[in-house]
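hey so i finally got around to running both of the ones u sent me last week. sorry it took forever, my laptop kept dying halfway thru and i had to restart like 3 times lol. anyway pasting them below in the order u listed, first the sequence line then the structure token line for each. didnt double check formatting much so if smth looks off just lmk and ill redo it

first one:
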Amino acid sequence: MTYIAKPRLHHPTLQRNAVGYTRRDYEGKISTLCAGCGHDSISAAIIQAVWELDVQPHRVAKLSGIGCSSKTPDYFLGASHGFNTVHGRMPSVLTGANLANRELLYLGISGDGDSASIGLGQFAHAMRRGVRMVYIVENNGVYGLTKGQFSATADRGSRSKKGAVNNDSPVDLVGLAMQLGATYVGRGFSGDKAQLVPLIKGAINHGGAAFIDVISPCVAFNNHEGSTRSYDHVRAHNEAVSRIDFIDLAREVIAEPAPGGVIELPQADGSMMRLRKLHADHDPTDRRAAMNHMQAMAAEGEIATGLLYVDPDASDLHAVLETVDAPLSTLDESMLCPGASALERINAALR
């Protein structure tokens, strides 16, 4: 396979963000995915989000597992830290990296096979422990690298490209994330960049475990009539529960907005997520109501997208473990090994 490198030189008139980078500086290698793959649109949304948030590329650590989705970190943030783990094991490697250096921004990129099958247990524990991360699942409902078999997220009754019908119940990662304790849960569509970019920006600035399930049609194996993960089906059945816009500073706080009003949710870094309510019966800060609303829409054959649930007072694993503010990777031997007398005091306290 021939490798084509992107040119290093950028046009001098390209717009730069507050930290001096152009949008091109957040790109990676040229994608080798199929033309039209929804995963490339997700990569573009991530690039746009971090550029608009003025994130320095070296502050980002991107981790992935195995699958078409897990190839995509090679196509964005080429100047960031990266680690491609074994199949389904991204969450545990990310957890360890997060505990060692809490100052980095962690992006966990996975797929429906990587997270809903072999990595389901890892996904569950990352959510319940509250690891501060942006966990994005690029969900196409098939195993694209092994010729299009149904994945664990494929809807019952959906048809494969060859006409086979899926008879298994789907794993709902969004519902699981809310049940397990994720404090920022959303669903997007790779074909709706206007919704996906602010959804990712809100997740980046959230103070706990943020999970986004992105419906991303596979143009090779799952973009035909009868598929519930095709572009046509998602566009026809997509109903946004919210229209979101990310703003840097708080301007007004409205506690009980009417339909069409605004909720402004404070984030850990002092920024705000601004949510405009479109449905009178959907409150994104009510976990139970969010789950009920999502299930009711699914029963009607609709796909709920947008910010489904958020806890504005979220904390992360470091707060639970009461770790020091300095990254553990920067502590010297005197801090990590305080000596025999300190160990004796600890042992005495346990007797």
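and the second one:
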Amino acid sequence: MDSKKIDKIFKGAEKKKICIIGDVMLDRYMFGSVSRISPEAPVQVFDLNKTENKLGGSSNVSLNVKTLGAEPYLIGVIGDDESGEILKNEMKALGQDVSGLILDKTRPTTCKTRVMSESHHLIRIDSESKTDISKKTESQILEKLNRINSNIELIILQDYNKGVLTKSLIKKVIGYAKKHKKKILVDPKFENFFEFKETFIFKPNKKEIEDAFGRKSKSSEDLDDMVVFLLGKLKCKNVVLTLGEHGMRIYEKVKGKVRIDSIKTRARKVADVSGAGDTVISTIAYCLAGGADVHEAVLISNIAAGLVVEEVGIVPIYKDNLYNHVKSEFKK
């Protein structure tokens, strides 16, 4: 990839609108210390010092799209509760559009609270519903998608199995995308793994592949065979497989045959892999919106993932930082 092409991709993606549909989440961190045992029961007493709120799930994908310089439109479901209000306020503070959030009084906002003492993770408290959203809420999601149709470049389906991406909604969104010639990128989870048919990019990790097939891969070749089978079963254009410290692989059909390309990881030091998958799908979408082909988009997203895993906690990828590293990388 030459310098002109890199400039063209980053400039081309500026302000392009990318729609994200999926499970929004609030990640809450409670920091404090433990130094004594409760007189009421044989349990530790946690002295709370501060609380931090961050965007998680598809909300984090939306944030990454924003910090890269494109315009995310997030469609998701929140509850009529404090966590929902906090999530909306966090999004607004970060300059994001919250008009795609749908209020459903029958379910809570997904919130994951992590209790931390110094560098120790003591406990995680989850508040969520995993039941499917109602047909009424499905209709509201499709209405919002139709309303922004002419403005969006592509759609990301971000599934965490929290009930928003139902089987029927997945089918309807894919049908909508085919009708309006919009590319769909999928970040899947176990429950609906085989429902995402005829999409442009399907992006699982190794564990998700193995969970879906119900067995561990015996070798690199065996894993390739599983993905090649998946490519045919889903009839998708490309599978991008993330392999953590072993990088990524792109599987695509070329003249009836599957071509496999391996990309080595770019991380220099790994501090925390949390949120790396969100970074990858966001960066791929951003680059495609800027005119990159799949290989260029994956190469750049691999560099982006390498940067965020060097940081502790879930952090977004920023345009200038990524641009400078991409330019430096391809000078070599």
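quick thing i noticed on the 2nd:
The domain at 3-25+55-109+129-329 is CATH 3.40.1190.20 (UDP-N-acetylmuramoyl-L-alanine:D-glutamate ligase).
anyway thats it, ttyl
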